Amino acid sequence: MDTNITAIALKVDAARRAKGVGKLPLATAAGIPISTLTRMLSGNNDFKFSNLLRVAEALDVDPATWLRDDTGAAA
In sequence order, which residues have a C-beta less than 8 Å from that of residue 7 and are 6 or more positions away? Predict the structure, then answer.
């Protein structure tokens, strides 16, 4: 799988955990099926950018932070 997808998935899941939000409540708040969120967080599947934006909004996180590498450059 694409290392960028895996890196983004890890960042999204870290943000979810930092906010103390479970997968089901996050999926519900983002308006996506839990199965979609689970696949997204696995890092093994590509996902829609629109779903990434929905999750970011539900977590109140700027999605651009997930698209940068650890140096701050765009991934």
Answer: 43, 69, 75
pTM: 0.87
Q: Tally DSSP H helices, then E strands, for the chain.
A: 5, 0
- Mean pLDDT of the 22-35 span: 98
Higher per-residue pLDDT: 74 or 68: 68
Longest CA pairwise span in the chain (Å):
33
Domains recognised in the chain with CATH numbers: 3-67 (1.10.260.40)
Look-up: residue for tokens 């629109």?
A: 50
Residue 21, classified by CB atoms within 10 Å of its CB into exposed (0-12), middle (13-18) or buried (19+), is middle
